[in-house]
Design a protein that fits this description.
The protein is of the alpha/beta class and 371 residues long. It has helices spanning 17-36, 69-82, 99-111, 125-133, 147-158, 165-172, 181-188, 208-219, 236-241, 280-294, 300-318, 343-348, 354-366, and strands at 2-3, 11-12, 42-45, 53-59, 92-95, 115-120, 137-141, 161-162, 199-203, 225-230, 274-277, 323-329.
């Protein structure tokens, strides 16, 4: 509404009480989800061959939508709602390799707006099923690099909001605390024999998790190092190594949820202390061996970080140092039965995990991860 209070004064008032009421209710629903969800467990993994080095895995698979991305989706929705970008009856659109879309579909249904996930056609069938289970719609593209453009176009065409996790992941989360993943890890480590880990190992899909952990470590004055493990065909590792944010790769990552063909805007390279490139076969071998140790399946993003954690633990032991290392269980393995746990898929991809499994089993016995 536009009114003129006096000559020369133009008053444009866009305050909408109905929309503000809807917004308050939507935000309350998202915040209530956080209150209902107890914190995720921090598992101590028994490794008798390394008596002076402890391994912990933050089990993010126990979130209501089953992955680390539940935290991200909640933060993205709160950020978008408070910014005035999400409106009633208008769709939310996201470019995603799967798990973020599962979690965003959950929150979209929670506040009563449509959700569309733009994803590569090769995304695991179980993730597609979960997106649809939570009320979302999947829009497939043939090239993983096309997800950004298509998601933005759909948002424009349908009058919706493109959530754009790859831009907003690192800025939507309060890295100072508010029970973010870093604060949760350090609170849970407080009574352990090495409460401040020597290293926290993360992986990067957007870069938001690594940025949050790195910033929190610095903010709280700790000396803990932050390592990011990166899979084959990802631009993050070479971009960080060469200090070149323009690096791209020709093909997409086979490890769903992590590794990108470009260095995403949310990847804060300057906050990362160390990066380790992990071959895909090693990452997949790691989740098969993890199942032997803890009796549970995990996704290959977990395996990527786990291989790097084992590498660091072996290094610490070799140098005669004690301490703890914390990694992440990013999502459950039942989403990938047709991929990382399927011999036919591994053969089609030319991935031989047996040599890496042998090295890992030797590591569990000796504490030394051979080169």
């Amino acid at each position: 509404m536009t009114t003129s209070a006096e000559p020369g004064t133009v008053d444009i008032n866009r305050y909408d009480p109905e929309r503000r009421r809807w917004l308050a209710e939507a935000i309350a629903k998202v915040r209530a989800d956080a209150r209902r969800s107890s914190d995720t467990h921090l598992l101590r993994v028994p490794l008798p061959a390394l008596p002076g080095v402890d391994l912990y895995l933050k089990d993010e698979s126990t979130h209501p939508t089953g992955s680390l991305k539940h935290r991200l989706a909640r933060s993205l929705f709160l950020h978008a709602l408070c910014s005035g970008w999400v409106r009633p009856d208008r769709p939310v659109i996201e470019a995603s390799s799967g798990s973020t879309a599962v979690s965003e579909a959950y929150f979209a249904r929670l506040i009563g707006v449509p959700f569309i996930a733009v994803m590569a056609r090769g995304t695991s069938r179980e993730k597609v099923r979960l997106i649809e289970f939570h009320g979302g719609t999947c829009h497939f593209v043939d090239s993983a690099n096309a997800v950004y453009e298509v998601a933005a176009r759909l948002a424009l065409e349908r009058g919706g909001h493109y959530m754009d996790q790859f831009t907003y992941a690192e800025r939507a989360t309060d890295w100072r605390g508010n029970n973010n993943i870093a604060e949760s890890i350090f609170d849970q480590m407080a009574q352990e024999r090495f409460p401040d880990p020597a290293w926290v190992v993360a992986t990067a899909g957007t870069g938001g998790t690594s940025a949050t952990i790195a910033r929190y470590i610095r903010y709280t004055g700790r000396s803990t190092g932050l390592c990011v493990a990166d899979p084959d065909n990802s631009a993050f590792f070479p971009g960080w190594r060469d200090d070149d944010a323009e690096v791209t790769t020709e093909i997409c990552s086979r490890i769903e949820g992590i590794g990108r063909q470009r260095v995403e805007p949310s990847f804060v390279a300057s906050a990362i202390d160390r990066m380790i490139h992990v071959p895909d076969a090693a990452a997949i071998a790691a989740i098969h061996v993890l199942e032997e140790v803890i009796g549970r399946k995990a996704g290959a993003s977990t395996g990527t970080g786990l291989w790097a954690a084992f590498h660091i633990m072996s290094e610490l032991a070799r140098k005669g140092r004690e301490g703890s290392v914390v990694g992440l269980i990013c999502d459950p393995g039942d989403r990938y039965i047709d991929k990382y746990y399927a011999p036919d898929w591994l053969a089609d991809q030319g991935l031989d995990i047996e040599p890496y499994q042998a090295r890992l089993r030797d590591f569990l016995t000796t504490g030394e991860l051979s080169a």
